[in-house]
Write a structure and sequence with these properties.
The complex is a heterodimer. Chain A is an all-alpha fold. In chain A, about 70% of the residues lie in helices and about 0% in strands. The relative contact order of chain A is 0.15. Classes of the chains: A mainly alpha, B alpha+beta.
Chain lengths: ~400, ~625
């Protein structure tokens, strides 16, 4: 097909425009975050990001051109390569990055997309019985392997991304929400194990659901056993097996206010930055919190704080709306596309986006723990930007071929 | 391949569900943003303004310690301290490079990582207050830190005042027991002093004058506010908000540095003991040495400190106020005065049978230190030769109650309340037994005990400073409180006149002059040319080893200016070791006095236009 015809008929102009706009906003905010009033310039960080944006656009174009058939065919191979790279980076790299001179490449970004491809391929096979428990074992393994490797880097936030893609994809493949509830119930038990009222409430809900759905006896038995083990075991391990420093780490993760010098400090400063922005913000380049480096990493993980401080509530909501538009476009594409594989890929990639957005922004305003997850299109960083653009490339790709069956 | 499973509805329905879910998530973010930016805007705005302004403590310079002539004994010198602003340092690191950063830092300052980690989490007055990592670092380390500072955010080099000890020629320090030292506040101590505005890693007076005068020496720290840029460098200031520091007061001591140096150097290396020189009229301490001693710098060095605390010779002990010894023969003046005052004995009376080297009493034989015997003696002869048998007789006549009463007048058995004792060391009160003491501790009082008490042995114990006060009182007739601080409120100092007739004291003084001037006097080694010296020796029996040597002296006898008390542990015969030491100190005193007088005369004689301390040009080069 010709490029002109593709752009005319099959390019999702709304999506690409919004993504480009967000990226430009990101570069503008990186400029502000690194702007030094003493020197009157912002250094070279934003220029690097511009360069990365072009590289990312090229990556996106490449992704668009390749037919989805090939992604389907090579899904497991791409996945295998990603796993190998994750293993390799633990051994020879800087645990997280491969260093090529001044350039750091994060293989975990590739692994996110590769995992989505592999799960999509598995879930799109025709002889899938979505109601059987053993159906979930392969995708669970596909998720756990890269998650464990990334967790070892250690990067808990990114490790959780892999889990976050699984459930929307299972749901998209036909799994009932009730079953999702059953699958995640041990996690809920763990959270509630330390609070008797909520634990009781959870179990009452679970019993009600069980009566309503009436699953198989074996399923019920496994479910009950696992949940009880978690609910009883977790407090026991907490009280008897964990060292104080381990408990401290977990508590800091759950409540950053307890550790003002570590990650908690950043959150407090970020909240001050955003909160002091008010309705309209302090004006471009006028943020004092971020300028005075009370806020570290302001151009990478905490770039949203710069938006919040300098453009206030209006700016922050605008960014949220842009993201919401991107997500809405992605879901529309996933719905319209004929190929089951492509549709599942679109859902998985959307889940990656949403997870990053929610966890990152949530972190800057103190509703999510501090993790190293970047904000798509806005945060400084080459690998995340390329990954985000490639991800959009996939969406554009499947949108362009939405009528194809394969 | 495409087929839609419909177990949970159509794709459109599922997409709507997912969109609703995402909408709900974004809604949470939106609501939170609203409450932060609209609801709590005011609060965060104020907080953000506070943040850009950073308080910086301005350290007040600590007062100096000077001797009676204004000479500096303890000063401040600049030193480099490497400190860290923990939030800056930690945020400058990649998320999980904390361990690595701490490792680098610990290598830089050469401290264990655990210690660095601990210091980073110390309590502070302000969030942005630097934590002092290592003090007094060498310049080499400073330049390394300056080099690496570019990628070690939050690490700073501060110039700080430290205590310095001008080199006076005795290995750099004098009177360490008295001057004391400063050190970091103990963690246990911190809650008690934090209300006074101390930071966790502030220095505080730990001992001696440094502790005693801490409130005066310390002054008050100031505070300034600065605006900082991204790297914590100062970019602006708020001069109108600066609270300047108030420097500490200088402390003037009664010590005379030259005399103190002489006093310390009279002790040969292996000797331990105490030397105290008082102005007998006022109680001012002109010199007070305790040997062995230590260097205040050793306090900062853990290994040196451990050696000090484990040393059997106890160099940290201030023997002058804490050491307890039998006063021995220097106490014989007490019973002599008691006998003269009570009319038991007239000054020139020979009352007791001649000394034949020993006295039998009950079933025991009490020996005289002069084994061949001293013959017939008056009180003068007995004191000159320090005959023990004479005083055995006298002890029996005077009795314990009277002896105790007179000894108490001279301050035995009660602390001197010397100011330096409040500098943390505390003062031993000694022991002056009475009849009740023996009944309580020995079950029964024996007449024989009095024989030993009369010659200063037995249970009686005294500190050198108690003996020094007694010595000064013999010289002047008043019991003055020894003290080191020059500006003590005079009402604090008691000058209690002795209830002893002037004639009796005069007679004792004359006898003490003879102890030194007589060819057979035990104190003859303490003679000073052209000055009449009054003195008395003592040899304290020591069950653990060689006897302790005492010597008390004052001069000039007719108008005393200085009273010297010397104790040499295991020094043997008092006159032999301690006598010459007293001589040296007394000679030094009069030498210093003469020099100062002639200088004063010269200055007075010079025409007012001439340079005051004039060495003629080129005069030094000869």
């Amino acid at each position: 097909m010709s490029v002109a015809r593709f752009i005319q008929r099959d390019l999702d102009l709304g999506l690409i425009t919004t993504v480009l706009a967000t990226t430009v906003i990101g570069i503008t905010m990186i400029y502000s975050a690194t702007f030094d009033w003493d020197l009157g310039t912002a250094g070279t960080t934003y220029q690097k990001q511009i360069l990365w944006a072009f590289i990312a656009l090229a990556g996106m174009a490449l992704t668009v051109v390749i037919p989805p058939k090939l992604y389907y065919a090579f899904a497991y191979i791409i996945y295998g390569v990603a796993i190998l790279l994750l293993l390799l980076v633990l051994e020879v790299g800087d645990r997280r990055w491969f260093n090529f001179g001044a350039i750091h490449v994060q293989p975990s970004e590739l692994a996110k997309i590769a995992t989505v491809l592999a799960i999509a391929r598995y879930l799109s096979s025709s002889n899938l019985d979505i109601e059987r428990l053993k159906t979930f074992i392969p995708p669970a393994l596909l998720v756990l392997l890269p998650a464990a490797l990334v967790y070892k880097q250690p990067d808990l936030g990114t490790a959780l991304v892999f889990g976050a893609v699984l459930f929307p994809m299972l749901y998209w493949a036909g799994l009932k929400p009730v079953n999702i509830f059953f699958i995640i119930s041990p996690g809920l038990s763990l959270v509630c194990a330390f609070h008797h009222w909520s634990l009781g409430l959870l179990y009452l809900t679970m019993i009600a659901v069980v009566f309503h759905v009436r699953p198989r006896l074996s399923t019920m038995a496994v479910l009950g056993a696992v949940n009880l083990a978690v609910a009883i075991g977790a407090p026991y391990i907490w009280d008897n097996k964990l060292h104080d420093y381990q408990k401290d780490r977990i508590l800091t993760f759950l409540n950053p206010d307890t550790d003002r010098l570590g990650g908690g400090y950043q959150v407090i400063q970020s909240k001050v930055a955003i909160g002091s922005g008010g309705l309209k913000g302090k004006g471009y380049l006028q943020g004092t919190q971020t300028k005075l480096a009370f806020l570290p990493e302001q151009h990478t993980d905490f770039v949203f704080s710069v938006v919040g401080e300098e453009f206030g509530f209006a700016g922050a909501i605008t960014i949220l709306m842009l993201f919401l538009f991107i997500v809405w476009r992605a879901l529309t594409i996933a719905t319209a596309v004929k190929s089951r594989f492509s549709s599942l890929v679109a859902i998985g990639l959307t889940a990656i986006l949403v997870f990053h957005i929610f966890v990152n922004i949530g972190m800057t305003i103190g509703v999510m723990p501090v993790t190293g997850l970047p904000l798509p299109f806005l945060s400084y960083g080459g690998s995340p930007l390329v990954m985000s653009m490639v991800l959009v490339g996939f969406l554009l790709n499947v949108h362009g071929r939405r009528h194809e069956y394969y | 391949m495409f087929e839609d499973f419909t177990s949970n509805g159509t794709r459109e329905r599922r997409a709507k569900c997912l969109l609703a879910f995402v909408f709900a998530m974004f809604g949470v973010l939106g609501i939170r943003l609203y409450s932060l930016q609209i609801g709590d805007w005011e609060r965060y705005r104020i907080q953000s303004e506070k943040n850009t302004m950073q308080p910086v403590p301005l350290e007040a310079s600590r007062g100096l310690i000077r001797d009676r002539n204004g000479r500096i004994l303890v000063e401040n010198r600049p030193s480099y301290t490497i400190s860290v602003v923990p939030p800056r340092f930690l945020q400058g690191l990649q998320a999980d490079a904390r361990a690595l950063g701490i490792h680098r830092l610990s290598r830089l300052v050469n401290l264990p990582e655990a210690l660095v980690e601990r210091r980073l989490s110390k309590r502070k007055r302000h969030y942005y207050e630097p934590v002092k990592l290592k003090r007094d670092v060498r310049f080499g380390t400073v330049s390394v830190v300056e080099e690496e500072r570019y990628d070690l955010t939050g690490v700073e080099v501060q110039v700080e005042a430290r205590r310095g000890y001008p080199d006076l020629g005795l290995g750099g320090t004098i009177a360490p027991h008295l001057l004391g030292y400063v050190g970091l506040i103990d963690p246990d101590e911190y809650p008690h002093v934090s209300a006074k505005g101390y930071a966790y890693d502030d220095q505080i007076g730990k001992r001696g004058i440094e502790k005693l005068c801490e409130p005066l020496l310390r002054g008050r720290d100031g505070l300034k506010y600065i605006e900082v840029n991204a790297h914590g460098r100062e970019v602006g200031s708020f001069p109108d908000k600066t609270q300047p520091p108030i420097p500490g007061h200088d402390i003037l001591l009664t010590l005379d540095t030259r005399l103190q140096m002489e006093a310390e150097s009279t002790f040969a290396d292996s000797l331990s003991g105490s030397l105290i020189a008082l102005d007998p009229w006022t109680g001012e301490v002109l010199a007070m040495a305790s040997k062995p001693d230590f260097h205040p710098r050793a306090i900062r060095d853990e290994r040196a400190w451990e050696t000090l605390t484990k040393d059997d010779l106890k160099p940290l002990l201030n023997r002058s106020i804490q050491g307890l010894y039998a006063p021995a023969s220097v106490l014989k003046m007490v019973i002599s005065i008691a006998a003269l005052e009570m009319g038991i004995l007239r000054p020139d009376e020979v009352r007791f049978p001649p000394c034949e080297g020993a006295l039998e009493f009950g079933d025991r034989v009490f020996h005289c230190h002069v084994l061949e015997g001293c013959g017939e003696l008056t009180v003068r002869g007995a004191l000159i030769r320090s005959c023990d048998v004479f005083f055995y007789h006298l002890g029996r006549e005077v009795g314990i109650a009277n002896w105790n009463r007179y000894a108490r007048q001279f301050g035995f058995g009660s602390p001197t309340y010397i100011d330096i004792a409040r500098g943390g060391d505390g003062e031993s009160r000694g022991l002056l037994p009475d009849r009740a003491y023996y009944e309580q501790h020995r079950g029964k009082w024996f007449e024989g005990n009095m024989l030993n008490l009369a010659i200063g042995q037995g249970e009686t114990l005294a500190t050198p400073v108690q003996v020094a006060r007694y010595n000064a009182a013999l010289a002047t007739g008043v019991l003055a409180t020894p003290h080191l601080l020059r500006h003590t409120d005079s009402s604090e100092r008691s000058l209690a006149p002795l209830e002893v007739s002037p004639e009796t004291l005069e007679h004792i003084r004359e006898v003490m002059v003879d102890v030194v001037s007589s060819p057979i006097g035990t104190g003859r080694r303490a003679r000073v040319k052209n000055v009449s010296v009054a003195g008395k020796t003592g040899t304290a029996e020591n069950s653990h080893g060689e006897d302790h040597a005492w010597f008390v002296a004052f001069a000039p006898a007719e108008q005393p200016e200085i009273a010297v008390t010397i104790l040499v542990e295991n020094g043997g015969q008092g006159g032999a070791v301690a006598g010459p030491m007293a001589q040296r100190v007394l000679e030094a005193y009069f030498e210093i006095k003469k020099e100062e007088e002639s200088r004063r005369l010269k200055v007075a004689a010079l025409p007012s236009t001439a340079p005051v301390a004039g060495t003629p040009p080129g005069g030094r080069a000869q």
